[in-house]
Amino acid sequence: MIQLTRLNNTPFILNCDLIELIEERPDTIITMTNGKRILVEESSNCILEKIIEYRNRCSGLAWAGQAPHETGCEVV
User: What gap in Å lies between CA 75 and CA 70, rounded to an integer?
Assistant: First the structure.
């Protein structure tokens, strides 16, 4: 699960396993596997970094001798 921000600055937690598509036009639109679309402030690259960090934490790679790090993504 990753934390993102809606366009009205409301943070929320998203199950990234259910993401089907991420588009930037110019707002970032996440399309879920059920067809629901969510507009977020983060860029597609930032979302990708958050997903990779989440999956690394889940698999234990982030704990293999290294402290987990913040993604450093900035809200656009």
Answer: 14
